[in-house]
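Filed under: proteins

Residues; backbone shape codes:
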Amino acid sequence: MGDGAFWFWSALLALSAVLSLYYSFRNLHRARLIEDTPTSRIRSAHQGYVELIGEAAIMKGERILSPLSSTSCCWWRYKVERKNDKGWRTQRSGVSDSLFLLRDETGECIIDPEDAQVSPSEKNIWYGPNATPGAGPDRGMGTNQSNFRVMGVNISVHNTFGGDYRYTEETIMPGDPLYAIGLFKSVGEIDRQAMRDEMIKGRLRQWKTDHAALLEKFDRNRDGQIDLDEWEGVRRAATREVVREQMLEDQQSIHTLSGTESSRRPLLISTKEEFDIVRRFRRFAVGALLGFFVLGSLMVWLLTARFI
């Protein structure tokens, strides 16, 4: 082996070993994150990184249709591949970023799946002669259907004797059990607080316009001016009035769950049971760790054979 090829393979093995170790620790961290985060109810969930369990539901408004089979769903992911001499090569793919709902017995939460790691439990695979399928899996070129389960995913394959294109579609359907962990926000509370602050400022400006009434009500020492302590009393009085008015409006909070922009606290969405999700991450961690030892051993053997 020449020097160039030797250093190329040595560097490739070293990089692959480091990446395997990284993915091992990342998957182990995600398994521990799920185990250590308690499940919250939507109505009582705190603001921040929380875990929710419920069922998927469609929001009111425009329907979400999967691109290949035009199935009405909550979320989709698809891939179109073409067969050539070297096997199947991806022609195009896509993933849904439309909002949908997670619903439990206490309320509803809007799920924003952008940048989420989604693991649905249903996958359909079928074949056809064109880059764009003219029908869904049940009406494709299938001669018979095979169903099997791989790592918690139910896979339905419509076998064919022809078709240069392979279509793969994963969906989350309304009513599917849903697990999600991410950044929880009550948008109604945030909006109400901002509105409250503006209303308090407006109320204070209004009171200032009637200086005589302000002195009559809040000038406790009767020195003809509002000092700092008395001004705090003015602010508290304005806050009490605004809060009472908002309570009478009976506004309903809108809850959202989205990404955190932190790889250590990812947005995870799955239709699997929590135990299955943890087991899957642990299996990936063990597999990546084995890959680290195998690749590392190959690199050591290569260096030993070269220099010893």
User: Anything to note?
Assistant: The chain is about 40% helix and 30% strand. The CA atoms of residues 100 and 201 lie 37 Å apart. The mean pLDDT is 84.
